[in-house]
């Protein structure tokens, strides 16, 4: 069975505390927006789609308990709470786009006089609940399109070796995963020879989370540290790199976990195709280029410590950007639930 990072049924939201993985499997109860904000900010839940889904579900939990009978007040509270949730982490766009959609739904429900406060609440909560199934469905489509793109041109029984970075699997989404969904689809069709995952310093999403998922799913995999990518591409034939995205700008420039950019450069040097797998909810058509993406900087402690153990020399200063931007020119294709697009074609292909 695939890992479940988000457990939800009406009125009850639990998330797998990803800070404790892989050593401990412990779920935390989220009782509303404040809990949702903290879980996202502390990275107990992380990954662009999971951040959006958990944030919005935490609002659904809070709304269910709210007995306000005035639609205007409800609308106003919803907008304020969504803005607050968006502020928990700045780079991933999914939660911002979800907040915009939900705010416009709340506006419509509020304006429609035939809708009672109870119906407003019910329809609003249902819309949030729909995000879970939609994300899994999108990820499966990404898996299908991505695996076909990678296999194109290979012999019908040819096997592939994939490199991935960070964690983009069930833990980062509602299930199945984006880049890891592509890897999963290749494995399901018996075309995956091997996957290499980077450690992904400093938070170690690769070593702690992706490695955990790959072992759990019995997918043949090897962990490397981030500085081994060039050596890996030089000495072992890598068919393609597949990574996720936190925000893709209209020109295809892609913000993803720190280290992605250097992998893309190394891939170009070695003529290895470099794919970004991301749902349309990760594409920000309002930003012309990646220069406009706000990059989150995280606390020094993520670099200087492993758990509570200090590993860096005391007194050293740190720079800890959590993401970098890979220029579109290094990206072979962006794999979405609607198909695989060359970065420069996004603007024509993706509905705005
Ligand atoms: O800081 P994180 O762990 O939230 O960063 C996650 C990533 O960069 C992922 O690649 C991205 O969010 C896509 S997850 C499907």
- How can the largest sheet be summarized? 7 strands, mixed
Integer average pLDDT: 96
Any guess at the CATH architecture of the largest domain? 3-Layer(aba) Sandwich
C-alpha termini separation: 36 Å
CATH class of the largest domain: Alpha Beta
Number of strands: 16
Integer tally of domains: 2
As a percent range, the share of helical residues equals 40-55%
Q: Outline, from the CA principal axes?
A: globular
CATH superfamily of the largest domain: Translation initiation factor eif-2b, domain 2
Description:
The chain has 352 residues and is α/β, with parallel strands linked by helices. The protein folds into 2 domains: 6-136, Four Helix Bundle (Hemerythrin (Met), subunit A) (Up-down Bundle), CATH 1.20.120; 155-349, Rossmann fold, CATH 3.40.50. It has helices at 33-41, 48-65, 71-86, 94-111, 117-151, 179-188, 205-216, 229-235, 260-269, 301-304, 346-349; strands spanning 6-9, 12-16, 27-29, 160-164, 192-198, 221-224, 240-243, 247-249, 254-257, 274-277, 283-284, 305-306, 309-310, 323-326, 333-336, 339-341. The strands form 4 sheets. A 7-stranded mixed sheet has the order 6-5-4-7-10-15-16. It is globular. The structure holds 5-S-methyl-1-O-phosphono-5-thio-D-ribulose.
